[in-house]
Amino acid sequence: MSLSEEQNVSTVRRPHIEPGRLFIDGEWREADAKGRRDVIDPSTGKVLTTVAEADDSDLDAAVAAARKAFDESGWAQLPGRERARILNRAGDIIRRRADELVATESANVGKPVSLCRAVDVATAAEEYEYCAALAQTVEGSTRQIPIPSHAYTRREPLGVVGAITPFNFPLILSSSKIAPALAAGNTVVHKPAEETPLSALLMAEILTEAGVPNGVLNVVTGSGSVVGEALLRHPGIDKVAFTGSTKIGRHAAAIAGEALKPVTMELGGNAAHIVFEDADLEKAIGAAIKGFVFNTGQFCMGGPRLLVHSSLYDAVVGALSGAVPGVPVGDPFDPATVVGPMAGERHLAKVEEYVRIAKEDGGRIVAGGERLDLGGGYYFQPTVIADLGNDSRAVQEEIFGPVLTVQSFDTEDEAVAMANSTPYGLASGLQTKDVARAHRVAARLQAGIVWVNDWAMLDPAIPFGGVKQSGFGREYGPEALEAYTKVKSVVISLA
Ligand code: NAP
């Protein structure tokens, strides 16, 4: 994925979006209590549409439908090759309906259309196609044991998967759960984020068109504190796949732990991006800017902490203060926009608060630092803050906005120690021309993924996930399939 990728987005128009309903057992329904919730367009702050606001009884119905589909629809027993055909069709339909998906996701999240097409929609299609291939690899193996027997393992689906996703990459993060879960023969109940639920509803339509049987995918829109909580506690859910903040993830893992349910936890991040003294400076500055403005900084794997060798510190701060004000911020539907609005008022307020803390802690604002008034919407200037101490909360905590802190170091050991000094461990990266250093430092960084000489190189073939407070379990890659299957051993006596 690349911010500079040429993409034709000239055909994407701001959409009119019909009110959304729940998708349960292959049918569109209103919530039992007839509740509805406004969905806001972050580029204007105005209501974009409404969706059904589910509660416990709707969740019960979705879990019952998913259970029935698991037990009776034949989905779990389909040969992997048949499930693969359906998942490949989903990939094709995502590509065919790309304009509609881009328009919906951009309007709901505030993503620039160019980014949304090149990254969100493309990655979702690729994930379904990658998982179609994985569906054909769900297999066991024979084992030799010293008694007369035929011993083998079977890899079986887990049952009903409860998927909970965050606001920032709705399409990608629902695909990273639903595609491997379906590939392995599970059924799914998906609760998208309450602010950004619209692409999940479109995906229910797309997967149905692709041939996914009724009840195999159910989408229940509603709040985390009601529907999310009910999903975590529901005895009919066999596995929880959660992406979100470390705070809510800890709560979710505790509930799942009490019920001994397997979980995948993709949680917060606060990556360090190290620029060594031998780095290609132009490339490093380009990667640093991409790392913190990508998705308006609402990127768990963004690079909000730039650690620069002291010999380059002034040059890098100077280059960033020159380049960052030129990054195009504005209407997500303008193809030239690189940074759109933040997804909601609460996210913008959080960023403002961290910039205030940074100033209080002695940080020097060298670019941005303010809310942007573009006639409505939740815009914040891409912001660079130099000279902060490593213990400032603006360094240690996840800001989750278009804010970069820049600090200096003198030695490789110091850089690694600073990089590893936060509670998080999702992504990390370094800029160097020294191959030995690249391998040496990559091995020492506490992170699920390390990038060298670029940022945000992600692909459905590459597993990602966290260590420390960034969670556990992996999405993407063949590893994802393991998270949605269980191994059964069968030993048949030949005596
Ligand atoms: P969040 O507040 O933790 O919400 C995540 C999801 O959990 C939402 O669907 C939310 O529903 C739901 N939820 C809230 N309270 C719940 C409860 N009591 N029980 C069950 N579910 C509940 O996170 P966010 O603000 O949407 O997303 C940003 C965070 O996600 C950041 O920390 C970011 O780093 C992390 N993230 C991690 C990854 C990764 O791969 N590791 C990827 C993307 C984002 P509502 O929306 O209705 O509140």
Automatic annotation (TrEMBL):
EC number: 1.2.1.8
Top EC category: oxidoreductase
A GO MF label: betaine-aldehyde dehydrogenase (NAD+) activity
Matching Pfam families: Aldedh
Domain of life: Bacteria
Alphabetic keyword roster: Oxidoreductase
Active site (catalytic residues): E266
UniProt keyword Oxidoreductase, yes or no: yes
InterPro entries documented for this protein: Ald_DH/histidinol_DH, Ald_DH_C, Ald_DH_CS_GLU, Ald_DH_N, Aldehyde_DH_dom
Aldehyde dehydrogenase domain span: 28-490
Family stated for the protein in its record: Belongs to the aldehyde dehydrogenase family.
Protein name, UniProt field: NAD/NADP-dependent betaine aldehyde dehydrogenase
Biological source species: Streptomyces jeddahensis
